[in-house]
Design brief:
There is one protein chain. The chain has about 750 residues and is an alpha+beta fold. The chain folds into 4 domains: about 170 residues, no CATH class; about 170 residues, no CATH class; about 130 residues, no CATH class; about 170 residues, no CATH class. It contains 16 helices and 33 strands. The protein has a 27-stranded mixed β-sheet that branches. A hairpin with a 4-residue loop joins strand 8 and strand 9. The protein is rod-shaped and about 180 Å long. The N and C termini lie far apart (about 130 Å).
Length: about 750
Amino acid sequence: MNSEITRSIYKITGIAIGVILGVALLCSVVATIVVKTRSLSLIGRRVDVSYVYLNPITGSLSVQDLSCLEADTLTPFLHADRLHVRVNPLALIGKKLRISRISLTGLDVNIINSKNGFNFSDITARFSSDSTEVDTTSSAWTLDLNRIRLRKASVGYYDKIGNHHWQLDNLSLSVPHLGLGGEKTDAGVRLDLPNRGGTLVINGEYSEPNNIFKVEVKPEQLDIHRFLPFIQSYLNIRSVDATIDGHLLASGSLNDIAATRIRGELSLLGLDLKDHNRHSIALCDTCLLLVRNISLGTMQVDIDKLQLDGLRLDLRRTKDGNTLGDLLAVESTADSTQVVQESADDEPDGSDEPLTINGEAVSRERLHARIGRLSLNNGQIRYMDKTMPSDFKYQITDLNLQGTEIDTRSTSNHIVLNGSLPGGGTLMLNFRGGTHLETANARIVAMVRNAQLSDLSPWVESMFGYPVKSGTLSLSSDNSLIHGTLDATEVLNIYKPVLGKKRKRYEPKAGNIPLKMAIDIMQDVKGNIELTVPVAGDVSSPEFRLSDVIGKALGQVFLKATAAPFLAMAKAKNKNIDLSQILIDPLDMDFQLDQYQKLDLIAEVMSDKQDIRLRLVQQFNLEDAIAQRALFDLKKEFYEKQTADKLGELTLVDIAKIRAIKNNNAEFQAYHKQVLSGKGTLTDKAIEYFGKDQLRDEVMASAEQRNEFVVHYLTEQKKLDKSRLSVLSMDQEQLLTYKGKPQYSVSAEMEE
């Protein structure tokens, strides 16, 4: 009896197994045939498989060598070595599709995006519904996915619009659970990049009644180099290396996506950003970002901490652009004809359009950003400017920056920056005010100490045409920005500057200023020069460049010094005496005490500045001098007739008595009425009486005697080398039109 039962059980089991195998075999054959013959009509794509195993009783599906072509039935779209799916058949009774396992091995897929959409849009369109109604009844199906695994996958992405292409190979992806339908949906995704590329973990929750969602993103040693093509769609770079760790949480509602809030922290390690010449333009050991809240809807970015350790920037400027501009200049390299054909009907890119949130235009000025603590530790900036006659290279090291409560809406932000300059110099910058420099108010105080002038030689050469061999510079700069207008005062202290020979192959930006002469005459006896330079400009102007504005303002100071060199040198000796001119009297052959004082000080300066040549030019109005000479000669004649003794040559006492005779002196009036005839003023009659030519000769002879006296005094009394002097009078044609005061114009010359 027992043996018969056992045999019956064996028979039933064998029949069941046979039925199961038969059903599986039949379903597998039918499924294989359907996939190969009906795929085109079902999904609009040609699909091929080597074999399909389907067992509806156990809920198991396996597909070998699955391949799918593009809509053109020629181009490969997708291929997978093996697909395995296991479903719980009993859950179907309760309208639940419960998949306990999905495994996909050896996936190779190419995703293409064009102006017509993605290359799989035709498939999704077949299964989309035209109805906008949502089934909210209790009879709706739910989907429960578990243990989804993707191994040895290769995904290629090509954006035809921007001509961007990137490829991810040997990917691994795991999704522990994904629930869709019902009141709550949750999902977890783990993406492992090959070759120690790091891991990206994403967990999400969704609640249907109020459409609330939470998404948690956790990168772990994630190598951003693997996402280079995507980054290149925003930055014009050749490569980027760095790893990211962190934890971000985004929460919000599908009813108002713009109100999504993001918080968490990220750390970026070992950043290395290279341009297309394989040159590292940005390096950073560590970047730490603590995000309190980012809300796109309200345009708020609230960051508790931004810390940069070991940031090193290498900035360059050429005639074709600069590092920052080139970094953002992302250009398409697609064939121009193709681009035109594909984008002819496209909408504008919106770069000049107003920002919209939830369909409403929003002013970009509404952006509110706050950084609770901003710090830069041990930073470095290297700068090269190849637009100058000689390449300008400069480096600032040991940069440390500190700022607290930096807010775009605040007018009292405070940032302090310190750094080290080449050769032992230091830099300090103190900023207070609003962050929108073109519209807000701000004050920037900068101090530079012991900067080596030789390091600034290319800039000096560009501005003034002279290279700098040696010297040091200290700078105190007080800059005020009021609604984009710069009002600054730069106080420079220059110590023992030594210039090279002037370059004459180009036009300096500040003009042809005799800088060597200006430097020489402005130095005091210890070699110091102190300059106060006012600077102004409109920072919002596209042509504004601070270095050029400062250079041209400095050039004006140097130009004034060369225009009145002895005034500048007198000030350098703490004697505020104007040595640019010495007033004279065309009739006075003797010098007064104030004139001697100026000659003495000029001689003292000349003794200190051996490279300077002195030039004195006698200037007066010749017509006025002739008139004065005519009256003097008439009074002289009257004086001689009134003097009993004829002394011959007049003494200084006699000349003083003659010049003291008043025109309304009764005896003098009687005399000139007796000797003068004709009509006109007393002066006109006197000129006619003596003759204008004779008077002109006397005036010019007196001028020449005065020149000889000056030369004699400076060479014999003050021991100046005569070869360094040039004392002369203006020519007679110039004297006839001269309108200024009678004087010696004092200037200096120097071999440049």
